[in-house]
Specification:
By secondary structure, the protein is an alpha/beta fold. The protein folds into two domains: 168 residues, P-loop containing nucleotide triphosphate hydrolases (Rossmann fold), CATH 3.40.50; 81 residues, no CATH class. 38% of the residues lie in helices and 24% in strands. A hairpin with a 2-residue loop joins β4 and β5. α3 runs parallel beside α6. It is globular. It starts with a strand and ends in a 7-residue tail after the last helix.
Length: 258
Amino acid sequence: MNMVLLKLERVTKQFGGLMAVSQLDLELQEGEILGVVGPNGAGKTTVFNLISGVHSPGSGEILFRGRNIAGLKPHKIAVQGLSRTFQISTLYNKCGVLENVIIGHHCQMKVGLWDTLWRTKTFWKEENEVEEKAVELLEFMNLAEYKDVFAENLSHGHQKRLAVAIALSTKPRLLLLDEPFAGMDTVETKQMMGLVGRIRDRETSVLLIEHDMKAVMGLCDRIVVMNYGAKLAEGSPQEIQRNEDVIEAYLGKEDDFT
């Protein structure tokens, strides 16, 4: 039986008079791909921000690998093994693709200040190791041929892949993907779905927000549907497809899933 990697217990977040997340319970098992869906304003991005430390919850606990991370700063959460992408690109546009991934790796470097300042053999040894790992990630994400291209010159789909590669450079146990298929055509979506599946095969669990319901249904092991900051439904893709409340509130007719 897989262990619970992430657990939210009665998590609440309010902005002024707006209840963005209300008494939310959520679990993600190790090795799972879990989708969080719902319309704009349902609270999905707020949930991601709470998990990754962008916001602190008003109440409740967020347990990652058994430790309460609620209220911790993002960098302290990242070193615990949790990484995320964002809806809006956070790439270094004036740097090459390989440089972007190397920058992501640097937060994992163990070399000390002295070695860095004086560019010792220890420093260069670790720099070379980082570059090798970055190249390996680009190959995994099918981006190796673009390693010297500026990030701003990549296609939208390749920029999405690069953002995921940077997030993976921290070697996360859990990867949070914020609308990974947004703006992609059918071919790009299928390619990204395949990559997300391969990421899980590398023992990285995945929690994703997405509006492309066909991609969610085809990729996720379980789905949580949110409505006005609260959980409306939870279950397998098949169970969500048959849930009358979900169909009526968000997904339209069942034909939308076929």
